[in-house]
Each structure stands twice: as structure tokens, then as C-alpha cells.
Amino acid sequence: MRLLPRSPAFWFLFPAIFALAVIGIYPLLVALYNSFHQYQLANPEAGTPFVGFDNYVATLTDPSFWDALGRTVLFLCLTLPIEVALGLFAALLLHRTGLAWMRSLARVSLVIPMATTYAVVGLIGRLVFNRQFGVANYLLSFLGIGPLDWLGDPTLAFVAVMIMDVWQWTPFCALIFLAGLSMVPKEAEEAARLETPRWTMVLWHLQRPFLLPGLTAIMILRSADMLKMFDAVFTMTRGGPGAATEFVSVYIQRIGFRLFDQGMASAQAILLLVLTIVLSRLYIRFVYREA
């Protein structure tokens, strides 16, 4: 149906279209424009002369950018499999339980970490991994370990950020997988369990096709979130110690708002967007298969 200005459908859609244009499309176009220009916030008198692909060339030849991107990819490769595995394990446990009230309570409980904002997660992480009075060192003391300087050691700081991300987003994976498991026909599942007692066979041959769409969505959404992860890391470690947790989004923020080079930061952000799109296409191509 054609959407005319007088059509009610147009006016119902207009707020969403306007919000998308203002919040998503306009900033993207501004960033794309800035990436082809020299734009120094600290020197507005210089204007914004056109420099072509110079910002992109400078970015691709910047060792610090590649280091930050490498740390981000390492974080993605280590954290995402853990979240997927733990989320699938939790979903299978909830799916097998016969208590409806327990599943309902678990669903509500799983939403709590997801509803916590990134900045608050970072602040919680600073408290949990504090050297003097953090919960992490308190628990390790029962094992005769510590106290560890979680946020002062480069490796431990990286692990601490991983733990907080796993805590926050494993429930998201569990809920997505649980939704996929709920689509499996009960009769087919009961018959499969009678045929074989091995749950791995049931998971691979019967439940896997129903889990693949959710797995693809998890990988796309979580990869995009991790590549642009900023708030939790910045409030928790400020990218330190040194540059141990300076992920690419933190590095872009430093270039754009500490060194005031908006042109370079915009070029880096556009390259990050391209990388996210490429990863999404790869996930759809190699992970998702329609049953």
C-alpha cells in the first residue's frame, strides 16, 4: 500500500523514521564527511579542507590503531565463545526443567544484568576487582590466593573486563537459545530422547537447526557491541593500565576528543563500521543455514 502524507500509516511510521534519521543516518553522514576532511577541534580557524583519503591512509599505517584493533579482536575471540557456551548450557538446563515457575523466575533474573547500563557495569567492575576491598580478592582469599592487583596488572585487567562482559551478556545468549529451544516440537524431542540417551545427539541432530538463527543473531549483535565497546571499559579501567584495555573504540575516543582530530577519528569509525558489516555477512554466510 502506498504511504501518502495523509495516510495514518505514514504518521505512525514518521516518528521512527525521524528518530532513525536524526540518531543514526545524520551522524553517519557527518562522520563520513569528516573522514575526508582535515578537522581539528582545537584549531577551528583552519577550517575543514578536503584531504581525500589521507585520513584513511594515516589510519591504516598507524601501529597504535592496529594494536587497539588487535586487542579488540582478541577480546572478541576469547569472550564471545565463553558467552555462547555458558548461555547454551544455561538454556539447556532451563529447557530440561519441568518446573514452569523456575523457568519464569530464571527469565526474570536473566534480564537484570542485561538491563544494567554499560557505565554502571564498569563501576561495578571497579568495586568487584578493587585490590583492597573487592569481592574478587575476598573470594580468592579462601583459596589462599591474593590479593591480586586486578586493575593494575595488564593481563588481569583484560581478564577482569572479560569477566564483567560475560556476566552481563551471558543471560542474553541464554534467553535467545531458550527461545530457539522452545520452537522444537515436543513430540519430536521426546521421540529423540527415547531413541538415544545422549543429549549431545539430540542437540546436534534435532535442536541445532532451531538454534542456528539465534546463534547468528547473537554473534552479529555481540560482535558489533564488542567492536564498539566503550562505556564499560572507560569507566572501569580508562583503557589502562597502559594500553592493556584500550580497545579500538577507546582509541577512537582518544584521537577524537583528547587529540581533537575529528577527521582521523571519523575515518577510524567508518573503518570499524565496515569491519562490523563484513563480520555480519560472514556470520550469515557460514553460520546460519535454513533448515
Describe the structure.
This protein is an all-alpha fold. Helix content is 73%, strand content 0%. The protein has twelve helices and no strands. It starts with 7 loop residues before the first helix and ends in a 5-residue tail after the last helix. The model has no long low-confidence stretch (mean pLDDT 90).
Question: Which tags fit this structure?
Answer:
mainly alpha, 12 helices
Structure, briefly:
With 291 residues, this protein is mainly alpha-helical.
Write the layout of secondary structure elements.
Blueprint (H helix, E strand, L loop, with lengths): L7 H28 L18 H7 L2 H34 L3 H16 L2 H11 L6 H7 L12 H28 L4 H10 L3 H29 L3 H6 L11 H10 L4 H25 L5
Say which CATH homologous superfamily is assigned: MetI-like
The rough form would be described as globular
Indicate the mean pLDDT: 90
Number of strands: 0
Show unreliable segments.
Answer: none
Largest sheet: none
> Structural class, please?
mainly alpha
Helix content: over 70%
In the CATH scheme, what's the topology name?
MetI-like fold
| Strand composition percent | under 5%
DSSP helix count? Answer: 12
How large, in whole angstroms, is the Cα Rg? 23 Å
The end-to-end distance, rounded to whole angstroms, is 32 Å
Membrane topology: Multi-pass membrane protein
Organism: Trinickia symbiotica
Subcellular location: Cell membrane
Family: Belongs to the binding-protein-dependent transport system permease family.
